[in-house]
Amino acid sequence: MIRKDWNPWHGCHKCSPGCLNCFVFYLDSKRDKDTNTITKSKTNFNLPLKKDRQGNFKIPPKSVVATCFTSDFFIEEADEWREDAWKIIKERNDVYFLICTKRIERFNKCIPLDWKDGYDNVIIAVTTENQEKADVRLPILIDIKAKKKFIFVSPILEYIDLNKYLATGKIDEVSVSGESYENARPCDFEWIKKIKETCDKYNVSFDFHQTGSNFIKNGKSYKINHFKEYSQAKKGMEYLEKIKRGEK
Ligand code: SF4
């Protein structure tokens, strides 16, 4: 599976404890960019429709397109641009658009008129960082109409009990990751283990995506180089699979 990024607009406002050390704010601060000013992309708003010199789409068929990961697809300032973004999404029905949001309460106001039960090529993912936010956002995610629904526990700040949400059979995948960069809050492998067990119980796909920079395993704290967060998480996943097979 090829993963691509598409950021039709950029910028966001902090709205939740998980936003405290948001990577978008962190990276913008290095470039003196004001993240709170939401701007439409001048060059890449229509990226999914762009073609190379050979006439092939720059985003190849079957790609998974991480959509609006430097903003929030449902942020208010983008209301005037979203309809055109939906048209692009509909036109590229040969790729999957992964839309990840902390503003799921705006979802029904922001969908196109022909959405019905959802476009086949759109995955709606809700991010949640603690139990309190999970209990606010996940009931909305369960209720909305979408062909695929993911939960991103990111950045994980505590163990989150997902039993009642996964028991609905309406969640396709759970992905967990820790927080990155200098001030990262701890990500404890015990929380990951327990969430994986919940996913296994309900036969929901699970991914431990990224350890974060401040990783705790067996009570011991590890500072993880940002570029190794993915490979370390992969090792964690292998370990969890061994537990599942009874090899640990
Ligand atoms: S909603 Fe996402 S992009 Fe926006 S500030 Fe929070 S963490 Fe950052």
Fold and architecture overview:
The protein is an alpha/beta fold and 248 residues long. It folds into 2 domains: 3-153; 181-248, no CATH class. It contains 7 helices and 12 strands. The chain has helices at 23-30, 79-91, 107-110, 131-143, 163-166, 189-201, 229-244; strands at 3-6, 9-10, 39-40, 64-67, 96-101, 122-128, 148-153, 173-177, 187-188, 205-210, 214-217, 220-223. It has a 7-stranded parallel beta sheet with strand order 1-4-5-6-7-8-10. A 3-stranded mixed beta sheet has the order 9-11-12. Strands 2-3 form a two-stranded antiparallel ribbon. It is globular. Bound molecules: iron/sulfur cluster. Iron/sulfur cluster binds next to loops.
| N-to-C CA distance | 30 Å
Overall strand count: 12
Q: Tell me the strand percentage band.
A: 15-25%
Fraction in helix: 25-40%
Q: What class would the helix/strand composition place it in? A: alpha/beta
Encode the helix/strand succession as letters. Answer: EEHEEHEHEHEHEEHEEEH
What is the general shape? globular
On the 0 to 100 scale, the average pLDDT is 96
Low-confidence stretches: none
Main beta-sheet strand count, sense and barrel state? 7 strands, parallel
Q: What compounds sit in this structure? A: iron/sulfur cluster
Give the tags.
single chain, 248 residues, alpha/beta, 7-stranded parallel sheet, 3-stranded mixed sheet, 12 strands, 21% strand, binds iron/sulfur cluster
Give a brief rundown of this model.
29% of the residues lie in helices and 21% in strands.
Lay out the secondary structure:
Blueprint: E1 3-6, E2 9-10, H1 23-30, E3 39-40, E4 64-67, H2 79-91, E5 96-101, H3 107-110, E6 122-128, H4 131-143, E7 148-153, H5 163-166, E8 173-177, E9 187-188, H6 189-201, E10 205-210, E11 214-217, E12 220-223, H7 229-244
Parallel strand pairs: 1-4, 4-5, 5-6, 6-7, 7-8, 8-10, 9-11
Antiparallel strand pairs: 2-3, 11-12
The protein binds iron/sulfur cluster.
